[in-house]
Recover the amino acids of this structure.
C-alpha cells in the first residue's frame, strides 16, 4: 500500500523563490497530480510543508520519497514535565527543519546543502505514555491495545512505544538528518525503542503521467483511499467531538510492518495475482471492468456466472461496504532491510493508516482480512502499533499542548 492521498503535490512544491506553500490544497486526482510531473529535480529541494496549522503535517500530503518511523519510551523519572519540555523542543525543531533552517540544538549539518525537501514530522502518543507521564485519566478509550489477529507474528520489541515519530522527506539525507537531531534532542528524556525506514516513488520518477504508486508486489496501491474532496473525508480520518477535547481534530494511526513473501508471490501467474487483489496489475482497474478509478462492482459476474471479483479478493474483503463503512487513509511506504537467513528479501510494506476511530476502521477490516483475504497467504504481520496523533500546533505552540496544559 504505497498509497497516495490525492493531494496535489504541485501545490506543495515551490519553485525556486516561490513563497511556498501552506497545508494541503484540494486534491485533483488520486496519486500524482494531473498534468506534467515536477520538471526540474532542483525544485524538489524547495518543497516546504508548514509544521504549524490545525492538523499535523504528514497525514494528508502526498507521500514523500523517504520515511523514517520511530518510537521512543519515556525515560524513568522524566514524567509529565520532561515530556512537556521534549515536545516543545521537538515541535520547535520540526518547524525549523520544515522551513529549511538549522536546528538550534544538536545540529550536525548532515543536510546543510539541501532545502527542506517537503520534510514533515508527525508525532503520536501510545497508550503506555499516559501512565508514565501521570496522565492516566486522560487516556482516550479508543487507544486500547489492538487485538491479536489470526496469523499475526508480532515482535513486541519492534511494536508499540510511548511516543511515535514519522519523518518524511523527498531526500534521504534530509530525512536522516531530522531523525538524528530529534533522537539526540530526546537524550535523557526518552529512549529509542525501535526505528524503521521506508520509501515511496520519488516525485517525477513516473514521467509525465499522473499515476498512483506501486508497492513491492507490483500492484497499483492507494486507488480507493478516501479523497479529500469527499464530504465525509474529515469524519472518516479526523476525530470529532466524540474524542477527548485535546484530541479533537487529531487522528489515530495504525502502523504495521507487513513482510511480503515475494518469492511465493512472484511465482504466481499474473492472472492469479490479479484475482488475489481483484484489480488488474497493469493499470489497477477493477476486474469488474473499466479503468483505475471506475467504481468496483462487487456483484459483477463473469460470463460463466462466477464472481468477477472473487470472494476472497483483497478489495472485496477490505471494502467499506463489506465492513459497515469502515474507512481509513492508507499512507504506507515500502521497505527493504536486506536478506533473511533463508536468502529471501526482508521486504514489504510499512502500513500506515490514519482514521477517526480504530474500532471503526482498522480493527474490523483487519479481522476480516486475517480470516478471508487471499492476499494474507503472501504476508506476515511482524510489528504493530496504535497511536493517538494530536491536532497540529499553532505558531508558538507545540504538539500535545492541550493534553499537557489543558
Ligand atoms: C502488504 C499488505 C497489503 C497490500 C500489498 C495491499 C494492497 C492493496 C491494493 C493493491 C489495493 C487496491 C488498490 C487500492 O484501492 O488501494 C488495496 C486496497 C485496500 N486495502 Fe490493502 N493491502 C495490504 C494491506 C492492507 C491492510 C492491513 C488493510 C487494513 C486492515 C488494507 C485495507 C485496504 C482497503 C480498505 C482497501 C480499499 C478497498 C476498496 O474500498 O476498494 N490493506 N490494498
Amino acid at each position: 500500500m504505497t498509497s497516495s492521498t490525492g493531494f496535489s503535490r504541485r501545490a506543495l512544491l515551490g519553485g525556486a523563490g516561490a513563497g511556498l506553500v501552506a497545508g494541503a490544497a484540494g486534491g485533483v486526482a488520486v496519486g500524482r497530480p494531473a498534468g506534467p510531473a515536477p520538471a526540474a529535480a532542483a525544485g524538489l529541494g524547495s518543497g516546504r510543508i508548514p509544521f504549524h496549522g490545525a492538523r499535523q503535517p504528514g497525514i494528508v500530503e502526498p507521500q514523500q520519497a523517504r520515511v523514517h518511523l520511530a518510537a521512543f519510551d519515556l525515560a524513568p523519572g522524566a514524567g509529565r514535565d520532561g515530556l512537556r519540555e521534549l515536545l516543545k523542543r521537538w515541535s520547535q525543531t520540526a518547524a525549523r527543519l520544515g522551513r529549511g533552517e538549522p536546528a538550534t540544538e544538536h545540529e550536525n549539518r548532515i543536510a546543510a546543502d539541501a532545502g527542506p525537501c517537503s520534510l514533515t514530522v508527525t508525532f503520536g502518543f501510545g497508550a503506555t505514555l499516559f501512565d508514565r507521564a501521570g496522565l492516566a485519566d486522560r487516556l482516550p478509550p479508543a487507544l486500547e491495545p489492538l487485538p491479536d489477529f489470526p496469523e499475526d507474528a508480532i515482535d513486541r520489541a519492534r511494536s508499540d512505544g510511548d511516543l511515535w515519530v514519522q519523518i518524511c522527506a523527498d531526500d534521504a539525507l534530509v530525512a536522516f538528518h531530522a531523525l538524528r537531531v530529534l533522537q539526540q534532542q530526546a537524550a535523557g528524556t526518552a529512549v529509542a525503542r525501535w526505528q524503521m525506514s521506508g520509501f515511496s516513488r520519488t516525485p517525477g520518477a513516473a514521467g509525465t503521467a499522473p499515476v498512483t504508486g506501486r508497492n513491492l508486489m507490483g500492484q497499483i496501491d492507494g486507488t480507493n483511499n478516501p479523497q479529500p474532496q469527499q464530504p465525509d473525508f474529515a469524519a472518516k480520518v479526523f476525530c470529532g467531538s466524540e474524542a477527548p477535547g485535546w484530541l479533537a481534530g487529531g487522528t489515530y494511526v495504525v502502523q504495521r510492518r507487513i513482510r511480503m513473501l515475494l518469492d511465493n508471490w512472484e511465482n504466481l501467474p499474473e492472472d492469479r495475482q490479479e484475482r488475489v487483489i481483484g484489480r488488474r496489475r497493469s493499470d489497477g482497474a477493477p476486474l469488474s471492468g473499466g479503468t483505475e478509478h471506475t467504481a468496483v462492482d462487487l456483484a459483477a459476474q463473469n460470463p460463466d456466472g462466477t464472481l468477477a471479483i472473487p470472494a476472497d479478493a483483497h478489495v472485496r474483503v477490505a471494502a467499506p461496504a463489506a465492513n459497515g463503512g469502515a474507512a481509513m487513509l492508507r499512507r504506507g511506504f515500502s521497505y527493504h532491510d536486506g536478506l533473511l537467513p533463508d536468502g529471501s528479501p526482508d521486504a514489504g510494506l510499512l502500513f500506515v493508516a490514519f482514521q477517526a476511530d480504530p474500532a471503526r476502521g482498522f480493527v474490523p477490516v483487519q479481522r476480516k482480512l486475517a480470516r478471508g483475504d487471499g492476499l494474507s497467504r503472501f504476508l506476515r504481520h511482524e510489528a504493530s502499533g496504535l497511536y493517538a496523533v494530536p491536532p497540529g500546533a499553532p505558531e508558538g505552540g507545540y504538539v500535545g499542548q492541550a493534553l499537557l496544559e489543558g
